Amino acid sequence: MRQCWTLKPGYGLESLALKDLPTADLEPGQVRVSIQANSLNSRDIMAAMGQSPLPLPDEIIPASDGAGVITEVGEGVTRFSEGDRVVICFNPSHQDGPFHPSMAIGALGEVRPGVLASDVVIEEAALVGLPDTVSFAQAACLPCVGVTAWSALFEMAPLMPGQTVLAVGTGTVSLTSLRLAKAAGARVGVTSSSDEKLGRAEALGADFTINYREHPDWADKVRDMTDGAGVDVALETAGPPSIAQTIRACRYGGRVMQIGLKGLEGPSINLLDVLVGGARILPVMVGSRAMLERLVTAVSLHDISIPINQQFHFEDAPSAFASFTSPQTFGKTVILHDEIGA
Fold it and tell me: Which of 25, 106, 236, 314 has the most CB atoms in a 10 Å sphere around its CB?
């Protein structure tokens, strides 16, 4: 038997339950991974609340993000051995190349069972080797949020040293992007409605910060901070509530990387701002296993740490979900299966 947390989509976080489920046998090409750490993402809350756009089963094992140790390998496995440290990719259906909407149902933790379990059986093609220099807690922060930030900054067009990045908000994608962009030699600005969070962003390396409540036309402040030029790359994590300002904050030919939605209502986009400003608006849909592999290499080589807000034990997963939804959260919420700090 193995222990798994389950929830019922649409029934809220109160439906979380710790269950003993049968241990699955290995099929050819599969391995068994003893999970050592998980991290939570907004999609886990959306699934619990019945807000996923996908048709979910009546009960799911949540969480797409996990890292651990291989304890068993099946017939035909060639890339990994027992004892190898690994991190599991967000969507095993997306191995490399461009994303296609047909791949969406392959993401873990929704239609396909997630990894909030003591161990999982999964195809070796879903795994990326984990160097000893990257902890399980840090690795568990990478598959969804980490790859999304990596894709936005380096895959669609490479971020160059000396360029300027704007992270809209202080969500986990923004904070991860801050760490990655600074490691690449970029200048980074961050927006928020909280001076306390902006101060913490500065401690992580932000070069300039803007409180958008104090400055409703905050695109003008961004222009001031960039000598009138605007930013090269903007990571837009809110959508309609702020995208009109984000477009104006970009330089001519700059990129607005649209990541997720915090609401559907907001100021109308002025088409003239798009035409005259020359900003390109590009959607970001997480990324492939190959991107995760490149991200792990970069994190290891440059000793990049992803901000972690709080860590919980596996047995206390409901508290982790509750913490994740708190407006005071700043950084990733991690669930560890062994000692805190692993």
Answer: 236
